[in-house]
Structures are given as structure tokens and as C-alpha cells.
Amino acid sequence: MKKYVALFGSCMFLVAFFSMYLMLDQLNLHGSLRSRVSMEMGQTELDFIKDKMENLENDIHHNQQIIDEIRNSVKQIIGGENMSKYIPVQRNMAPLVEEVPDSPVQAKIETGDCSFVERQGEHSDDVQMLDVLDILPFDNPDGGVWKQGFDIRYTERDWDNQPLKVFVVPHSHNDPGWIKTVDRYYLDQTQHILNNMVDKLKVDSRRKFIWAEISFFSMWWDNIDAEKKDAVKKLVENGQLEIVTGGWVMSDEAITHYYAMIDQMIEGHEWIKRNLGIKPRSGWAIDPFGHSPTMAYLLKRMGLQNMVVQRVHYSVKKQLAKEKQLEFMWRQNWDHGASSDMLCHMMPFYSYDVPHTCGPDPKVCCQFDFKRLPGGRVNCPWKVPPVPISDNNVAERAKLLLDQYRKKSKLYRSNIVLIPLGDDFRYDKAIEWDQQYGNYQKLFDYMNSQNWHVEAQFGTLSDYFDAMWDRAGLQPGSPGLGYPVLSGDFFSYADREDHYWSGYYTSRPFYKNLDRVLEAHARAAEIIFSLALAHSRHIDVPSFPAKNAYQMLIGARKSLGLFQHHDAITGTAKDFVVVDYGTRLLRSIMDMKRVMIDSAHFLMSEDKSQYDPETTTTFFDMDEKRINHDALPEKPILQLSQQTKEVVFYNSVAQARHEVVRLRVSSSTVEVQDASGKVIPSQTNLVWTAAQDSSTTEYELVFIVNVPPLGLSKYLIRDAGSEVNNPYNAPSQVTLYNTGSPESSVRGVFHISRPISDNRDFTIENSRLRAKFSGTTGLLQSVTTVKDGKETAMSVEFLMYGTRETKKDKSGAYLFLPDGEAKTLDTNGKAVIRVIRGKILSEVHVLMKHVEHVITLHRSPGIDGWSLEISNVVDIRDQRNRELCMRLKTDIKNSNQFFSDLNGFQMQRRKTLSKLPLQANYYPMSTMAYLQDQDTRMTIHTAQSLGVGSLQEGWLEVMLDRRLNQDDNRGLQQGLLDNKRTPNQFRLLLERRHQRTSSPNGGGGKQTGVDYPSLTSHSVSQLLNHPVYAFIRNKLPGEGPAGDVKLSGSVQPLVKALPCDIHFVNLRTVQAMDAPAPTQESVLLLHRKGFDCSFPANGLSCSTTGGKVQLEDLFRDLDLTDIKATSLSLMYDGQVLNSKSTLQLDPMEINAYRIRLD
């Protein structure tokens, strides 16, 4: 016994000794060094004191851990075990000599740059969709033959002064993947539709047809001969065939990002230019499940003049029809003038099929769908079939049809009526062309021969709109049409009853995430390739693999464009079709990695004349790999030795990045150097293989990189081995809760403590934020902003929705039909909680049954130090008819309003309406959503599109995944049972206003539909959606020719960073007219973002310039020539500029410029 007492006393003496040493060390020995570092970084005296206190607090915590170690060691000795494995290596008892720089920075904002947002009260409109939703009763009475509408009346004298002009527009809606894959649809149906089109339109010049999907059209074009191509061009020239919209696909509008929306439009319009030589004039969006003003804006800025939409809530359609507002000028909520006005025609009835397009009575209209003639595969559900038109019945039939045309026309302001004639994959058989065109021509001829004051004919979409403009005496697209101005969006869509299409916002989130991964890779690859290609031309290095890389870029553009289709990114296709999409996405992701690697290799090579593309083996490896399209990404392990390894980091945004990066390495003792050889602080973490188990061969390395705008920076990493004097690298400290074992342990350099029954709340913090967590659940409870000491309740919960128990209607791929309120995902306090504390980042891991939830707080001087990172890996594969959401409950007084973004382009005010069911109060979120009151705003940023709602005051919830056993009767004919382990990534930003506003919901002035993120918030979104990429060098010096290539320390392509509020959207190399090869021309896309100045621009070292960009300040060491402004999809060129010109960008606008870089 005396032995144990003596041993324990000796240990306590050591503890006291080390405690005194550490305190003196902190207060004296290193004080001057830290003071010097702090002052160099501009840190205030108060911040310096806070850092001191934090260091002392960490030391106290560290000393407690040492006591825990000794206590456990004594127990082990008593038990007869070897004591050595429970003593941590001596080097890890010392704190970092060099603290991580953590000085706050703020953007410099020109005073005038705040005026745009302050003028939002100048916006004017006749119809504000928020007001429409407020006044609608959503009562859905029976409207008679038009079930969701009302009885339409007219007198035959209504057209005495001006005849009714009828344009019947034949069309075939072709989904590039849904029930079949895009290739199978093409082989089975689409090629036959287009072949028949050529043959049948040539029969009669009065016949017309429209086509939208260029993805299919291009496949067909590649398989037809020159004679047929000439015939198609002739049909286009004489106005019989019109290409409408002209995008690669008819994209979804709820959950697509504006980058991908623009990119697929460019791909389509450039194909049309190269092959048909025309410019689409009218938009055609009849199947996307709700409509966004972002699409109207993009079409307007691309040079289109008109557009058509269809899927809008039936109550909204009824209201607009009553007021004759189904045709309107769609104006952006943020537009203070009328420059964004786009003429939009909204179809009034249930569907775009023939029974719902000729007029209000589907029973009558179905009789004029001649594909449904008796003997065919399709019939009329109303039990009255069509009959062929003959001399004996044409008078009665024509009068019946004209009655429907007249009634439909009474819903609009002009005496011109649009009658689409088509449906999904129509006209694939030659006989249908004969049936439809032949019978309708007989009807037209008879109508036009009577004294009925009607002019009926086949037409294209632009024929219809041109007639409207002509009757108004105006040129198409010009102002003064006199139609009502409408602002707002058309979400969420319901087609009947309470069947809201708010489920697809989240369906198959794994692939929504994969879509954004490809989008980020494709954009980053486009930019770095264009830069590398320009520099290779500038110094005449023909070995750069431009042609091969460019073909991969073309493939990625097409893969990304295809997935924007409204049955792809939406998650509403058959399982095997989703696999086809996923395979294409993954192939393109891997190709984009290769393009970036080859381009980075060239740009970083000191002697570019010796550049060798190494076609057999890549010069760099990426820091992430995917083994399959449905697998989570894996990080390769960087095998370290005493010799340094080079890692290059690439920043694809046009502002400098100073942020935390993570790598996987083979050693827990690491040294990191910048390109000059200076050792910089780093942190090593355990890599967990199970709840309590960690790898002994793999570790996570964390450090802060500084990468120039659009640039590359090199860092050096080596294994520090057993060196005890490595004060720049520190292992994190781990605390485990709910493990069932109270014993602490040591794993190499890592100390792991396990408190006994400690359910007290705990915190992690940096100099800006303090996050408090529940000691029972491990979930976030509140966040405090350190500067003002204000605490905001912000509790995280995970909940499950069920689906209705009714036999008929349940949730499916499209619909969200919950069985009531969500139920909390109960962990019974048994979830394993891991708390990791380090000098560069700290984390809390909560391992629940269906969610692996991680919150990270960075100690970084960059933008990543101002928000909490949330990473979830969701797995609900063992569930049945369940939908998992994450809810944030705050004490923000948001008055039942919140804001969600539209396509990453603009914010839209949302009102939670008690008169609507729960599912109606869910909205799409592509990049962010926020709650706010007069003092505080909380924003959740997302790296993938999902559904979002605020169901009670202070709440904001995000749907994470859905698993549903049944079809929801919208044509898919299956449920959603192909769930994966799915990553969700978010950033949680808490901001305090430094200028209070008169409005409780943000912004001064009248309540409009718009609001604006802060500059910090915009930057957080960029951080999340455009990550810094890491390239790991494969060969060391002496390992062949590749090992002898010397790399530059950094590459800085820009003369200086772009202003904070200007986003470098893309630098896209233009394709040659006659080959899949790059030209010397590129397209530069810039977006000036609107931002709210009532929040400080924290974490930004850039400034604003009133929207001015000096062209000569853009590209370093390159000649910028042949500059001209152009429309967003490159169809219309504008002002010619030169390299001395100054670009003037207006807030919210996206601008495009053709440039030549040499």
C-alpha cells in the first residue's frame, strides 16, 4: 500500500510542477512572441486578452486531462498492466509556440454601393405574388366542366369588330430520361418523331411544329444525312419548324443553380448556331413543376422575347384568369425599373395534353385529339371518342371546337388564342401526323369559310406572340404592350386538392449533391483550362493537351446540362434511369479532375517549355476519389516520409482565399511548410473507423492555406517523425461521451478522455463564436457572438415525417403528403458523442442511428471562421415511408416569414400561411435560407438543393432525405427505395445588424418579395459551393523526369482580386464551328451581387468599387483583345470594348463578354 501512496504522491507533484510550468510559460516565456504576432495581425488589445484567457482555459483543461491520465495509470498499475502505454508522448504536452493568426478583417464598402438595396421600395408591379397568396382562400369549389375554374361566358357578337385569331401549335414533349433512359427514348421514339417531322411537314407548307430539347435534336442530327439536314434547315427558314427555348434540356426551375441553367442554355444555343444558324425567340416550359423568375430573367438577358409556362397552382391560375392576368410582363422583384420585363403566357388549365388545351371542357377537347380515334392504344377517359372529320360532320364538329376556342380566349386580353396540340412523345407514328394534321386542316378550312369571325391555322409559338405584338403595333420585345406587371415566383405547385409538389425538392438528395459536385468541378475546370490554354498560346507551348481536355469539357457540359432536366435533378425518374444519370455525372467529375490536374501541372511548371502532359500517368493526384456513382467520396492517404511532398491548392473564385483545408496523411506527427519553406501551424486528428475506434495508419491533417484569386499555391508536407521540438503541429484532444466506459486512454500522440456520467452542456469556440451543446444529446443549443456577448438560442433537432394512411394518396417522388407533425428522432441519450478540440478547428460528432452529425468551428482568419460547418451523413435505408428533416429552433422573432433563394441568384420572401397545409409551406432552397428580425439574422447555407420550411416562429427546417414505398400517381409508377448513405453539407451563419431597419423582416421601405444576403453571406455560399481543390504531386525528385519538374510557389492569374460583390461566374472557351475543338475565343461571365449593408462585411479582405472592373486589371501576362459585350447565351453581340475599357456592372445583373486571351 505504501508503494501506491508514494507513487500517487509523486504523480501529484509532477502535476503541480507541470501546471506551474505551463502557466508561467503562457504568461511569460511566449508572451512577447504572441504579442508580436497579434500586433502584426492588427488584433485589438481586448482580443489579445481574450486569447490569453482562452489559452489559460485550455491549459486548465489540459491539466485536468493529465490528472485523468494519472488516475487511470494508477488503476492500471494496480491491475498489473504496463504503465507506459498510458503516458502521452512528452512533445504533445506543450502548446503551439506559434498561435494561428485569428485577426478580424472587414471589407471596404463604397458608400454608394448600399443605395441599390435601400431603394428597393422603388420597385413597382401590378401583381405581387405574395399578395395573391394572401388573398386567395384556397377553397377549391367545383367549377363545373372546368373543375378548378369557373363557368366562362361569351356572346357571338364579341368578335364582330376584331376576329378571333387561333394558333394551333403542334408539339411533342420529349423527356431526356424518365421512364426510360435518354438513349432508349431516342431509339424507341424520338428519332421516329423527328424523321416523321421532316417527311410530314414537307407535305403541306401550312403545317407547323415546335421542338425544345436540343439534347435529343443533336443526337438525331448526328445520325441523319446531308440531304435530310438541308430539308430541316429549309423547314426552319420558311417558318414551319421552330426551335423553342433551345436549351440542352427543358430544365427544372426550383432546385437548379443559375450557373447550370445558363450553361445548358449556352450549350443548346451554341449547337443551334453551329448547325442551324438561327436564334430561338420564345421560351417553352410546359412541364417543370413550378416556375422561377430566374428563368424569366435569364431568357430576357439571352435575347428571347416571350415565354410560356404551365405548372402553376390551380388556385393561382383561377385568380389570374378572373382578372385576365394570365399574360403578363414578368418583372424581377429587385428591378427598380422595367429592364427585366419578360412577356409570359400562362396556360390556364390542368395539363398541357390535348384534353386540357383547347378550352375549359376536357370532355370536348379530348374529342379533338385524333390519336385517340377508336382502334388506337389511347382513348378518352370521358367516354366520348373522337370521330374522323368528314363533309357530313365538319359543321357540327367545327362549331363545337370553336366554342372551346372562344371560351379560352375570354381568359386573355387579346383576341388571339394559343392552342397547343401535343403531349409526351407524340407524333412518333406516321399515322398520327396524318390524323392530327389532316382532320384539323378540314376544321380550319370550314371555320375560316364561315361568317364566324375566326381565323384558325397551324402556327409556331413565335407566330402566336408575333400576332400579339403586331396587334399592339409594337416590335416584339419592346416596351408598351400594356399588359399587367407581375413579380414573384410560382412555388409551391399543386395540381389538385392539397397535392403539393414539394417532395421533389428533396427526392434522391444523393444525386442532388452529386450534381453540385460536378457543377463545381466543371466550372473550376473551365476556368483553369481557359487560363492554361491562353498561357500555352502566349508562350507557344504546343504540348499542352488542349484538344483532349476540351473534349472532356464538352462531355461534362452535356452531362451537367442533361441532369438539369426536370425529371433528373428532381429525383423523379425510374431507378435504372437514375443510375444512368449518376454514371454520366461521375464520369464527367473524373474527367474534370483530369482537366484541372493537367492545367495545374502546366501553370505551376517553372519551365513550361519542358512541359510533358504525361498521358500514361497523371502528374498530380486529387485529394478525393469515388469508386462508384453512388459511393461517398474517399480521400487518398498521403504517404509521408522525411522528404517533403508537394501539394498544390487551387482557388476558382476571383477573391483570395485564406481558409482551413484537410488532407489524409500516414503520420500523426507532421510538418507543413509554405512555398518559401516557412513552417506553419497545423493540427492532426484521428480518423474514426467506428464510434470509438480510430485508424492507426491514417490521420487527418488540418492547416490554413492562402490561395490567390483564380490562383494556385504550393505547400510542403513531411513526416516529422519522433521530433519533440515541433511546436507548430499539435494533435487534437478528444472527449468521448456515452461510450459505456469511463476510462481515458492514449493513442500515440492523442489523448482520449471519457467523463463519468457528465451530462453538463459544453462549448467549442473561436474568437468570434461560441457554440453551446447539450451534454445529453451532443446537439447544438445556442450560439453566442463573442464581440457583443449576445446569445441566440439555436437548437438542432432531427425529426421524421410519416405519410398519410389513406389508401389513395400518399407521399411519393413528387408529392409531400405527411401524416401530421414530424416526430423527434429520439436517441434516448445513447448517441455516442465525440468532442474534438484543436488549435485550428474543433468539432462535435453525434452518432445517431440514422444520422452522423458533425458541427465544426474553424479558428481561421478567413471567411470560414465566421460560421459553423454542419456535415450530415444520412442513412434511412431501414425505414418505411419516412422523411427525415433537420430543424433549427431559435428565438428570432421572424413574424412567420423567412427567405429562401431562387436558383442561387436571388432571395424570395416566404410567408408561412396557416390556411395552407404543412406541405404547402415547404419551398425549394438551392443555396441558402434565412430567418431574421430587427437585430439578428440566421442563415443556413447548403451545398445541395433541398426543401426548406419555417413552420413556427423562430423555426427553420431542412428536409434531408425521403424513403417512400409507393407511387404518388404522377406517372413514375414507383416509390423511392434506392436511398444511399447521403452527405449533406451546410454552413450556419449568425449575423448581428449594425444598422437597425424600420422593417421587422429586413430592409427598409415597403414590404416587397425581395431581400438580400450580406457580403459575408455571399462569401460563405461561395466557400461552400466552390471549394479549394488540392492536387497531390505523384513523383518526388529523382523519380524519373516527372520528379525533376520544378514547381512555382504560386500562380496568380489576375492582376488583382475582383471586388467583393462581383462573382467570376465562368471563363468558358468557345467551341469551333466545325469541330469539337477549342478556339482562341472565351466567354467571360460576371455577376454583381446585391447585398445588405446593414450587416458588417466580416472576414473579407476585399473591397467594392461601385461595380467598376478595369479590364487591364484582370489577366496577368496575357493580351486581352477582341472584347465585346454579348447576351448571356452568346446569341447577340453588343458594344465593342478594348483592354483599357472599364466595365460597369449593375447590382444583381449577370454580364457576358466575348474576349480573346493570348
TrEMBL record:
Pathway field: Protein modification; protein glycosylation
Coiled-coil region: 39-73
UniProt cofactor(s): Zn(2+)
Lineage: Eukaryota, Metazoa, Chordata, Cephalochordata, Leptocardii
Cellular component GO terms held in the UniProt record: Golgi membrane
Keyword Thylakoid set for record: no
EC numbers, comma separated: 3.2.1.-
Family annotation (InterPro entries): Gal_mutarotase_sf_dom (IPR011013), Glyco_hydro/deAcase_b/a-brl (IPR011330), Glyco_hydro_38_C (IPR011682), Glyco_hydro_38_cen (IPR015341), Glyco_hydro_38_cen_sf (IPR037094), Glyco_hydro_38_N (IPR000602), Glyco_hydro_38_N_sf (IPR027291), Glyco_hydro_57/38_cen_sf (IPR028995)
Enzyme class (EC, first level): hydrolase
Catalysed conversion reaction: N(4)-{beta-D-GlcNAc-(1->2)-alpha-D-Man-(1->3)-[alpha-D-Man-(1->3)-[alpha-D-Man-(1->6)]-alpha-D-Man-(1->6)]-beta-D-Man-(1->4)-beta-D-GlcNAc-(1->4)-beta-D-GlcNAc}-L-asparaginyl-[protein] + 2 H2O = 2 alpha-D-mannopyranose + an N(4)-{beta-D-GlcNAc-(1->2)-alpha-D-Man-(1->3)-[alpha-D-Man-(1->6)]-beta-D-Man-(1->4)-beta-D-GlcNAc-(1->4)-beta-D-GlcNAc}-L-asparaginyl-[protein]
Name of the protein in question: Alpha-mannosidase
GO MF term list: carbohydrate binding; mannosyl-oligosaccharide 1,3-1,6-alpha-mannosidase activity; metal ion binding
PANTHER family assigned to the protein according to its UniProt record, in alphabetical order: ALPHA-MANNOSIDASE, LYSOSOMAL ALPHA-MANNOSIDASE
Note accompanying the cofactor annotation: Binds 1 zinc ion per subunit.
Membrane topology: Single-pass type II membrane protein
Transmembrane regions: 5-24
Subcellular location: Golgi apparatus membrane
Family: Belongs to the glycosyl hydrolase 38 family.
Function: Catalyzes the first committed step in the biosynthesis of complex N-glycans. It controls conversion of high mannose to complex N-glycans; the final hydrolytic step in the N-glycan maturation pathway.
Keywords (A to Z) from UniProt: Coiled coil, Disulfide bond, Glycosidase, Golgi apparatus, Hydrolase, Membrane, Metal-binding, Signal-anchor, Transmembrane, Transmembrane helix, Zinc
